[in-house]
Amino acid sequence: xxxxxxxxxxxxxxxxxxxxxxxxxxxxxxxxxxxxxxxxxxxxxxxxxxxxxxxxxxxxxxxxxxxxxxxxxxxxxxxxxxxxxxxxxxxxxxxxxx
Length: 98
Known about the structure:
mainly alpha; Histone, subunit A
């Protein structure tokens, strides 16, 4: 499929792109090639292929959510640059309320 320069300009306008005449000419050939490849893919015999969302069968693997030992708070904040009352202390990133 061969696109016209008007087609490329239309697509560029939809994408809110400002293209020079040289860019339009370069993209005309590239987009035409892309559409030709897409047409080739459409020629593949898929009548007996069921639609899928993934090429491999997927299943969710969940582990049991069981409590287990974790770091004590003092050890967790031991390497922190700043800590206060056993918690991480970080700089304020949101200003005071207006």
